[in-house]
Protein backbone atom coordinates (compact mmCIF):
# COMPACT_ATOMS: atom_id res chain seq x y z
CA UNK A 1 0.00 0.00 0.00
CA UNK A 2 2.72 2.41 0.98
CA UNK A 3 4.48 1.56 -2.33
CA UNK A 4 1.44 2.52 -4.39
CA UNK A 5 0.98 5.68 -2.39
CA UNK A 6 4.64 6.56 -2.98
CA UNK A 7 4.31 6.02 -6.72
CA UNK A 8 1.09 8.01 -6.93
CA UNK A 9 2.65 10.80 -4.90
CA UNK A 10 5.67 10.95 -7.21
CA UNK A 11 3.49 11.01 -10.33
CA UNK A 12 1.36 13.75 -8.82
CA UNK A 13 4.45 15.83 -8.10
CA UNK A 14 5.75 15.30 -11.65
CA UNK A 15 2.40 16.28 -13.15
CA UNK A 16 2.25 19.31 -10.88
CA UNK A 17 5.74 20.41 -11.96
CA UNK A 18 4.83 19.96 -15.64
CA UNK A 19 1.60 21.93 -15.13
CA UNK A 20 3.50 24.77 -13.44
CA UNK A 21 6.12 24.83 -16.22
CA UNK A 22 3.43 24.93 -18.92
CA UNK A 23 1.54 27.67 -17.07
CA UNK A 24 4.69 29.77 -16.69
CA UNK A 25 5.54 29.25 -20.36
CA UNK A 26 2.04 30.32 -21.37
CA UNK A 27 2.40 33.47 -19.25
CA UNK A 28 5.79 34.10 -20.88
CA UNK A 29 4.27 33.87 -24.36
CA UNK A 30 1.54 36.34 -23.41
CA UNK A 31 3.81 38.75 -21.52
CA UNK A 32 4.77 40.61 -24.69
CA UNK A 33 1.30 41.05 -26.14
CA UNK A 34 1.05 44.76 -25.26
CA UNK A 35 4.32 45.56 -27.02
CA UNK A 36 2.71 47.45 -29.89
CA UNK A 37 -0.34 48.72 -28.02
CA UNK A 38 1.95 50.47 -25.54
CA UNK A 39 3.49 52.31 -28.51
CA UNK A 40 0.15 53.38 -29.89
CA UNK A 41 0.19 50.87 -32.76
CA UNK A 42 -2.93 48.87 -33.59
CA UNK A 43 -2.34 45.16 -33.05
CA UNK A 44 -4.95 42.55 -34.03
CA UNK A 45 -5.63 39.67 -31.70
CA UNK A 46 -3.30 36.73 -32.15
CA UNK A 47 -2.99 33.19 -30.90
CA UNK A 48 -1.04 32.84 -27.68
CA UNK A 49 1.28 30.19 -29.07
CA UNK A 50 1.81 31.08 -32.72
CA UNK A 51 1.06 34.77 -32.93
CA UNK A 52 -0.37 36.13 -36.18
CA UNK A 53 1.61 33.78 -38.45
CA UNK A 54 0.60 30.23 -37.40
CA UNK A 55 1.23 28.70 -40.81
CA UNK A 56 4.97 28.75 -40.24
CA UNK A 57 4.58 26.28 -37.39
CA UNK A 58 1.87 23.90 -38.51
CA UNK A 59 3.35 23.77 -41.99
CA UNK A 60 0.05 24.47 -43.73
CA UNK A 61 0.60 27.93 -45.22
CA UNK A 62 3.50 29.93 -46.54
CA UNK A 63 4.11 33.23 -44.75
CA UNK A 64 3.31 35.05 -48.01
CA UNK A 65 -0.36 34.05 -47.71
CA UNK A 66 -0.51 34.98 -44.03
CA UNK A 67 0.93 38.45 -44.66
CA UNK A 68 -1.33 38.95 -47.68
CA UNK A 69 -4.38 38.06 -45.61
CA UNK A 70 -3.44 40.70 -43.03
CA UNK A 71 -2.69 43.19 -45.82
CA UNK A 72 -6.12 42.78 -47.42
CA UNK A 73 -7.94 42.86 -44.09
CA UNK A 74 -6.33 45.94 -42.56
CA UNK A 75 -4.74 47.96 -45.37
CA UNK A 76 -7.84 50.11 -46.00
CA UNK A 77 -7.99 51.23 -42.37
CA UNK A 78 -4.34 51.20 -41.28
CA UNK A 79 -1.03 52.29 -42.81
CA UNK A 80 0.71 49.72 -40.60
CA UNK A 81 -0.07 47.29 -37.77
CA UNK A 82 1.84 45.48 -35.06
CA UNK A 83 1.88 41.68 -35.27
CA UNK A 84 3.69 38.80 -33.62
CA UNK A 85 5.71 35.93 -35.00
CA UNK A 86 5.28 33.64 -32.01
CA UNK A 87 6.33 35.99 -29.21
CA UNK A 88 8.51 38.26 -31.36
CA UNK A 89 6.94 41.60 -32.35
CA UNK A 90 6.94 42.62 -36.02
CA UNK A 91 5.94 45.99 -37.51
CA UNK A 92 3.95 45.22 -40.67
CA UNK A 93 3.91 48.14 -43.14
CA UNK A 94 1.12 48.62 -45.69
CA UNK A 95 1.78 52.19 -46.82
CA UNK A 96 4.33 52.31 -49.70
CA UNK A 97 5.66 55.71 -48.62
CA UNK A 98 6.42 54.41 -45.13
CA UNK A 99 8.08 51.34 -46.64
CA UNK A 100 10.16 53.52 -48.96
CA UNK A 101 11.24 55.79 -46.09
CA UNK A 102 12.42 52.81 -44.02
CA UNK A 103 14.35 51.34 -46.95
CA UNK A 104 15.87 54.61 -48.16
CA UNK A 105 15.48 57.70 -46.00
CA UNK A 106 16.05 55.96 -42.66
CA UNK A 107 18.40 53.27 -43.88
CA UNK A 108 20.97 54.28 -41.26
CA UNK A 109 18.52 53.22 -38.55
CA UNK A 110 17.31 50.06 -40.29
CA UNK A 111 20.50 48.57 -41.69
CA UNK A 112 20.05 44.94 -40.78
CA UNK A 113 18.15 42.06 -42.29
CA UNK A 114 16.23 39.60 -40.14
CA UNK A 115 19.20 37.22 -40.23
CA UNK A 116 21.63 39.69 -38.67
CA UNK A 117 22.99 38.27 -35.43
CA UNK A 118 21.48 34.84 -36.09
CA UNK A 119 24.05 33.59 -38.61
CA UNK A 120 27.79 34.16 -38.45
CA UNK A 121 30.86 33.00 -40.35
CA UNK A 122 31.58 30.24 -37.85
CA UNK A 123 28.14 28.64 -37.92
CA UNK A 124 27.60 29.09 -41.67
CA UNK A 125 30.74 30.28 -43.49
CA UNK A 126 29.05 30.41 -46.91
CA UNK A 127 26.09 32.64 -46.00
CA UNK A 128 27.67 34.15 -42.89
CA UNK A 129 30.45 35.64 -45.00
CA UNK A 130 28.01 37.41 -47.33
CA UNK A 131 27.17 41.11 -47.07
CA UNK A 132 23.47 40.18 -46.85
CA UNK A 133 23.85 39.39 -43.14
CA UNK A 134 26.26 42.24 -42.34
CA UNK A 135 25.70 45.83 -41.23
CA UNK A 136 27.82 48.92 -40.67
CA UNK A 137 31.36 49.25 -41.94
CA UNK A 138 31.70 45.54 -42.68
CA UNK A 139 28.70 45.67 -45.01
CA UNK A 140 29.82 48.97 -46.55
CA UNK A 141 33.39 47.82 -47.22
CA UNK A 142 32.33 44.54 -48.78
CA UNK A 143 29.73 46.19 -51.00
CA UNK A 144 32.22 48.81 -52.18
CA UNK A 145 34.67 46.03 -53.08
CA UNK A 146 32.12 43.94 -55.01
CA UNK A 147 30.12 46.71 -56.74
CA UNK A 148 32.68 47.42 -59.53
CA UNK A 149 32.24 43.83 -60.70
CA UNK A 150 28.85 44.84 -62.11
CA UNK A 151 29.67 47.76 -64.34
CA UNK A 152 27.90 48.00 -67.69
CA UNK A 153 31.21 47.24 -69.40
CA UNK A 154 31.60 43.94 -67.55
CA UNK A 155 27.97 43.02 -68.15
CA UNK A 156 28.42 43.64 -71.89
CA UNK A 157 31.55 41.48 -71.81
CA UNK A 158 29.41 38.50 -70.75
CA UNK A 159 27.21 38.71 -73.87
CA UNK A 160 29.11 35.92 -75.68
CA UNK A 161 28.34 33.68 -72.70
CA UNK A 162 24.62 34.40 -73.05
CA UNK A 163 24.76 33.49 -76.73
CA UNK A 164 26.65 30.27 -76.12
CA UNK A 165 24.36 29.15 -73.28
CA UNK A 166 21.24 29.99 -75.26
CA UNK A 167 22.35 27.90 -78.24
CA UNK A 168 22.76 24.93 -75.91
CA UNK A 169 19.33 25.55 -74.41
CA UNK A 170 17.79 25.88 -77.86
CA UNK A 171 19.17 22.49 -78.92
CA UNK A 172 18.04 21.03 -75.59
CA UNK A 173 14.47 22.25 -76.21
CA UNK A 174 14.43 20.88 -79.75
CA UNK A 175 15.80 17.47 -78.72
CA UNK A 176 13.66 17.01 -75.59
CA UNK A 177 10.49 18.06 -77.44
CA UNK A 178 10.80 15.17 -79.88
CA UNK A 179 10.99 12.43 -77.23
CA UNK A 180 8.04 10.04 -76.86
CA UNK A 181 7.61 10.65 -73.13
CA UNK A 182 7.75 14.44 -73.49
CA UNK A 183 5.08 16.17 -71.39
CA UNK A 184 6.11 19.81 -71.44
CA UNK A 185 9.05 21.76 -70.06
CA UNK A 186 8.95 22.75 -66.42
CA UNK A 187 9.30 26.54 -66.71
CA UNK A 188 11.04 26.89 -63.36
CA UNK A 189 13.51 24.12 -64.14
CA UNK A 190 14.29 25.50 -67.59
CA UNK A 191 14.90 29.00 -66.25
CA UNK A 192 17.08 27.59 -63.46
CA UNK A 193 19.21 25.69 -65.99
CA UNK A 194 19.70 28.78 -68.17
CA UNK A 195 20.49 31.05 -65.23
CA UNK A 196 22.81 28.57 -63.58
CA UNK A 197 24.68 27.98 -66.81
CA UNK A 198 25.18 31.72 -67.37
CA UNK A 199 26.30 32.24 -63.76
CA UNK A 200 28.58 29.21 -63.73
CA UNK A 201 30.28 30.26 -66.95
CA UNK A 202 30.50 33.90 -65.83
CA UNK A 203 31.65 33.38 -62.26
CA UNK A 204 33.38 30.02 -62.27
CA UNK A 205 34.40 29.78 -65.94
CA UNK A 206 32.90 26.28 -65.84
CA UNK A 207 30.19 24.72 -67.99
CA UNK A 208 27.76 22.97 -65.60
CA UNK A 209 26.50 20.80 -68.50
CA UNK A 210 22.85 21.28 -67.60
CA UNK A 211 21.72 20.96 -71.22
CA UNK A 212 23.55 17.78 -72.25
CA UNK A 213 21.09 15.31 -70.70
CA UNK A 214 23.35 14.16 -67.85
CA UNK A 215 23.07 14.85 -64.13
CA UNK A 216 24.73 18.15 -63.22
CA UNK A 217 26.40 18.26 -59.82
CA UNK A 218 26.50 22.06 -59.91
CA UNK A 219 22.74 22.18 -60.56
CA UNK A 220 22.07 19.75 -57.70
CA UNK A 221 24.33 21.72 -55.36
CA UNK A 222 22.73 25.01 -56.36
CA UNK A 223 19.25 23.67 -55.62
CA UNK A 224 20.53 22.34 -52.31
CA UNK A 225 22.10 25.72 -51.49
CA UNK A 226 18.72 27.42 -51.87
CA UNK A 227 17.00 24.86 -49.63
CA UNK A 228 17.28 25.70 -45.92
CA UNK A 229 18.63 23.08 -43.55
CA UNK A 230 16.41 21.46 -40.91
CA UNK A 231 18.52 23.15 -38.26
CA UNK A 232 17.68 26.53 -39.82
CA UNK A 233 13.93 25.83 -39.71
CA UNK A 234 14.08 24.65 -36.09
CA UNK A 235 16.19 27.57 -34.90
CA UNK A 236 13.98 30.07 -36.77
CA UNK A 237 11.07 28.93 -34.62
CA UNK A 238 13.11 28.87 -31.41
CA UNK A 239 14.48 32.39 -32.02
CA UNK A 240 10.93 33.70 -32.49
CA UNK A 241 9.92 32.24 -29.11
CA UNK A 242 13.16 32.82 -27.23
CA UNK A 243 15.03 35.76 -28.84
CA UNK A 244 17.79 35.58 -26.21
CA UNK A 245 19.01 32.32 -27.77
CA UNK A 246 20.70 34.30 -30.56
CA UNK A 247 23.40 35.25 -28.06
CA UNK A 248 24.35 31.63 -27.50
CA UNK A 249 23.43 29.69 -30.65
CA UNK A 250 23.74 30.54 -34.35
CA UNK A 251 21.78 29.12 -37.27
CA UNK A 252 23.06 27.23 -40.29
CA UNK A 253 21.13 27.91 -43.48
CA UNK A 254 23.20 26.04 -46.04
CA UNK A 255 23.03 22.28 -46.41
CA UNK A 256 26.02 20.16 -45.32
CA UNK A 257 28.67 19.97 -48.02
CA UNK A 258 27.65 23.16 -49.86
CA UNK A 259 30.37 25.26 -48.26
CA UNK A 260 33.18 22.91 -49.28
CA UNK A 261 31.77 22.36 -52.78
CA UNK A 262 31.45 26.05 -53.71
CA UNK A 263 34.74 26.96 -52.07
CA UNK A 264 36.58 24.25 -54.04
CA UNK A 265 34.74 25.22 -57.24
CA UNK A 266 35.77 28.86 -56.89
CA UNK A 267 39.37 28.10 -55.93
CA UNK A 268 39.79 25.63 -58.83
CA UNK A 269 38.39 28.19 -61.27
CA UNK A 270 40.74 30.90 -60.03
CA UNK A 271 43.77 28.60 -60.19
CA UNK A 272 42.94 27.52 -63.75
CA UNK A 273 42.43 31.11 -64.89
CA UNK A 274 45.72 32.27 -63.37
CA UNK A 275 47.59 29.28 -64.78
CA UNK A 276 46.23 29.97 -68.28
CA UNK A 277 47.52 33.53 -68.28
CA UNK A 278 44.28 34.65 -69.97
CA UNK A 279 43.00 38.11 -69.05
CA UNK A 280 39.27 38.69 -69.56
CA UNK A 281 37.02 41.57 -68.61
CA UNK A 282 34.76 39.26 -66.60
CA UNK A 283 33.66 38.68 -63.01
CA UNK A 284 36.18 35.94 -62.32
CA UNK A 285 39.05 38.24 -63.30
CA UNK A 286 37.72 40.95 -61.03
CA UNK A 287 37.40 38.56 -58.07
CA UNK A 288 40.96 37.38 -58.61
CA UNK A 289 42.07 41.01 -58.44
CA UNK A 290 40.19 41.48 -55.16
CA UNK A 291 41.96 38.48 -53.69
CA UNK A 292 45.40 39.74 -54.73
CA UNK A 293 44.64 43.15 -53.21
CA UNK A 294 43.49 41.30 -50.06
CA UNK A 295 40.15 43.10 -50.09
CA UNK A 296 38.33 39.78 -49.67
CA UNK A 297 39.33 36.27 -48.63
CA UNK A 298 38.70 32.92 -50.33
CA UNK A 299 35.54 32.17 -48.37
CA UNK A 300 34.16 35.63 -49.07
CA UNK A 301 34.68 35.12 -52.79
CA UNK A 302 32.99 31.69 -52.65
CA UNK A 303 30.10 33.20 -50.68
CA UNK A 304 29.45 35.95 -53.23
CA UNK A 305 29.80 33.53 -56.13
CA UNK A 306 27.14 31.23 -54.68
CA UNK A 307 24.76 34.15 -54.05
CA UNK A 308 24.45 34.78 -57.81
CA UNK A 309 22.00 31.88 -58.00
CA UNK A 310 18.83 34.03 -57.38
CA UNK A 311 16.58 36.18 -59.89
CA UNK A 312 13.45 38.37 -59.32
CA UNK A 313 10.16 39.39 -60.90
CA UNK A 314 6.99 41.36 -60.06
CA UNK A 315 4.29 38.69 -60.25
CA UNK A 316 6.46 35.99 -58.73
CA UNK A 317 9.05 37.71 -56.59
CA UNK A 318 11.33 35.14 -54.88
CA UNK A 319 11.18 37.13 -51.65
CA UNK A 320 7.60 37.25 -50.37
CA UNK A 321 8.48 40.06 -48.00
CA UNK A 322 11.36 42.32 -47.00
CA UNK A 323 12.51 42.44 -43.39
CA UNK A 324 14.54 45.27 -41.92
CA UNK A 325 16.08 45.22 -38.46
CA UNK A 326 16.31 48.42 -36.44
CA UNK A 327 19.97 48.99 -35.58
CA UNK A 328 19.76 52.53 -34.18
CA UNK A 329 16.83 53.98 -32.17
CA UNK A 330 14.55 56.40 -34.00
CA UNK A 331 11.10 57.95 -33.67
CA UNK A 332 9.30 58.01 -37.00
CA UNK A 333 6.61 60.49 -38.00
CA UNK A 334 3.99 58.30 -39.63
CA UNK A 335 0.61 58.92 -41.37
CA UNK A 336 -2.20 60.60 -39.43
CA UNK A 337 0.34 62.47 -37.28
CA UNK A 338 1.38 59.31 -35.49
CA UNK A 339 4.79 58.89 -33.90
CA UNK A 340 6.25 55.43 -33.30
CA UNK A 341 9.52 54.84 -31.50
CA UNK A 342 11.75 51.98 -32.67
CA UNK A 343 14.59 50.46 -30.69
CA UNK A 344 17.43 48.15 -31.83
CA UNK A 345 16.03 44.70 -32.36
CA UNK A 346 12.64 45.80 -33.71
CA UNK A 347 11.87 44.18 -37.06
CA UNK A 348 9.86 45.75 -39.89
CA UNK A 349 8.04 43.55 -42.41
CA UNK A 350 7.21 44.91 -45.88
CA UNK A 351 4.81 42.55 -47.74
CA UNK A 352 6.36 42.82 -51.20
CA UNK A 353 4.02 40.36 -52.93
CA UNK A 354 0.92 42.09 -51.58
CA UNK A 355 2.04 45.55 -52.69
CA UNK A 356 3.11 44.32 -56.14
CA UNK A 357 -0.31 42.73 -56.71
CA UNK A 358 -2.43 45.53 -55.30
CA UNK A 359 -4.98 46.79 -57.89
CA UNK A 360 -4.69 50.27 -56.35
CA UNK A 361 -1.16 50.48 -57.77
CA UNK A 362 -1.30 48.11 -60.75
CA UNK A 363 -4.27 47.92 -63.07
CA UNK A 364 -5.27 44.27 -63.53
CA UNK A 365 -2.25 43.24 -61.42
CA UNK A 366 -2.31 39.51 -62.16
CA UNK A 367 -2.00 40.10 -65.89
CA UNK A 368 1.43 39.96 -67.52
CA UNK A 369 1.49 43.40 -69.09
CA UNK A 370 4.99 44.73 -69.88
CA UNK A 371 3.49 47.86 -71.44
CA UNK A 372 2.55 49.08 -67.96
CA UNK A 373 6.26 49.93 -67.63
CA UNK A 374 6.51 51.64 -71.02
CA UNK A 375 8.41 54.97 -71.16
CA UNK A 376 5.26 56.85 -72.16
CA UNK A 377 3.66 55.64 -68.92
CA UNK A 378 6.55 56.83 -66.82
CA UNK A 379 8.58 53.65 -67.00
CA UNK A 380 9.72 51.61 -64.02
CA UNK A 381 10.94 54.75 -62.26
CA UNK A 382 7.39 56.05 -61.82
CA UNK A 383 6.46 52.96 -59.81
CA UNK A 384 9.71 52.95 -57.85
CA UNK A 385 9.30 56.62 -56.92
CA UNK A 386 5.90 55.76 -55.42
CA UNK A 387 7.41 52.90 -53.45
CA UNK A 388 5.18 50.26 -55.06
CA UNK A 389 7.76 48.44 -57.19
CA UNK A 390 11.17 47.32 -55.97
CA UNK A 391 11.78 43.75 -57.16
CA UNK A 392 15.48 43.97 -56.30
CA UNK A 393 14.93 45.87 -53.06
CA UNK A 394 15.32 49.61 -52.59
CA UNK A 395 17.86 51.95 -51.11
CA UNK A 396 21.50 51.20 -50.23
CA UNK A 397 20.73 47.49 -49.85
CA UNK A 398 19.29 47.12 -53.34
CA UNK A 399 20.48 43.86 -54.95
CA UNK A 400 24.03 44.41 -56.13
CA UNK A 401 23.58 42.14 -59.15
CA UNK A 402 20.26 43.51 -60.41
CA UNK A 403 21.62 44.74 -63.76
CA UNK A 404 23.35 41.44 -64.37
CA UNK A 405 20.12 39.55 -63.61
CA UNK A 406 18.06 41.80 -65.88
CA UNK A 407 20.57 41.52 -68.73
CA UNK A 408 20.57 37.71 -68.80
CA UNK A 409 16.80 37.52 -68.25
CA UNK A 410 16.01 39.93 -71.10
CA UNK A 411 18.39 38.16 -73.45
CA UNK A 412 16.96 34.72 -72.68
CA UNK A 413 13.34 35.79 -73.16
CA UNK A 414 14.06 37.78 -76.33
CA UNK A 415 15.96 34.86 -77.89
CA UNK A 416 13.24 32.35 -77.02
CA UNK A 417 10.34 34.32 -78.49
CA UNK A 418 12.47 35.05 -81.58
CA UNK A 419 12.99 31.35 -82.29
CA UNK A 420 9.91 29.69 -80.81
CA UNK A 421 6.19 30.00 -80.47
CA UNK A 422 5.62 29.49 -76.74
CA UNK A 423 2.43 28.05 -75.26
CA UNK A 424 1.23 26.49 -72.01
CA UNK A 425 1.12 22.73 -71.66
CA UNK A 426 -2.35 21.46 -70.56
CA UNK A 427 -1.00 20.09 -67.28
CA UNK A 428 -0.09 23.57 -66.07
CA UNK A 429 -1.79 24.35 -62.76
CA UNK A 430 -2.91 27.94 -62.27
CA UNK A 431 -2.51 29.52 -58.84
CA UNK A 432 -0.59 26.56 -57.43
CA UNK A 433 0.24 26.87 -53.75
CA UNK A 434 3.74 27.88 -52.65
CA UNK A 435 5.33 25.23 -50.43
CA UNK A 436 4.91 26.29 -46.76
CA UNK A 437 8.65 26.03 -46.03
CA UNK A 438 9.87 27.62 -49.27
CA UNK A 439 12.46 30.35 -48.68
CA UNK A 440 12.79 31.30 -52.34
CA UNK A 441 9.29 31.42 -53.84
CA UNK A 442 8.46 31.28 -57.53
CA UNK A 443 6.29 29.82 -60.26
CA UNK A 444 5.48 26.15 -59.72
CA UNK A 445 3.59 23.62 -61.84
CA UNK A 446 3.95 25.76 -64.96
CA UNK A 447 4.78 23.71 -68.05
CA UNK A 448 5.64 25.10 -71.48
CA UNK A 449 5.69 23.88 -75.07
CA UNK A 450 7.87 25.33 -77.81
CA UNK A 451 7.19 25.27 -81.54
CA UNK A 452 10.16 26.34 -83.63
CA UNK A 453 9.43 29.29 -85.91
UniProtKB/TrEMBL annotation:
InterPro entries: Cyt_P450, Cyt_P450_CS, Cyt_P450_E_grp-I, Cyt_P450_sf, Insect_CytP450_Detox. Keywords: Endoplasmic reticulum, Heme, Iron, Membrane, Metal-binding, Microsome, Monooxygenase, Oxidoreductase, Transmembrane, Transmembrane helix. It is a peripheral membrane protein. PROSITE patterns: CYTOCHROME_P450 (PS00086). It is found in: Endoplasmic reticulum membrane; Microsome membrane. Heme binds at residue 399. GO terms for cellular component: endoplasmic reticulum membrane. GO terms for molecular function: heme binding; iron ion binding; monooxygenase activity; oxidoreductase activity, acting on paired donors, with incorporation or reduction of molecular oxygen. Its cofactor is heme. The chain crosses the membrane at residues 12-30. Belongs to the cytochrome P450 family. May be involved in the metabolism of insect hormones and in the breakdown of synthetic insecticides. This is Cytochrome P450.
Amino acid sequence: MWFCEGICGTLSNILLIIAVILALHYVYLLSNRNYWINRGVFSPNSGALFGNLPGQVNGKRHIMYELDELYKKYKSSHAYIGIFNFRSPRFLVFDPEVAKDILVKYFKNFQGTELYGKIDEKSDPLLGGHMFVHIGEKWKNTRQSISPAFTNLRIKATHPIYVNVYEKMKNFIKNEGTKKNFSGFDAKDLCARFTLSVVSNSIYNVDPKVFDGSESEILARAQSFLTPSKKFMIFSILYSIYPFLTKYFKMTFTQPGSEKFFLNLMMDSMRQREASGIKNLDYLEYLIGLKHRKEIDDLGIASHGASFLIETLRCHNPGSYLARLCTDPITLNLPKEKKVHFIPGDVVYIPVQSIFKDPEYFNNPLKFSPERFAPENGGVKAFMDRGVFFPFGLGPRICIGNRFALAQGKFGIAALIRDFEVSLNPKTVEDSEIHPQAIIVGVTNCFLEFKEI
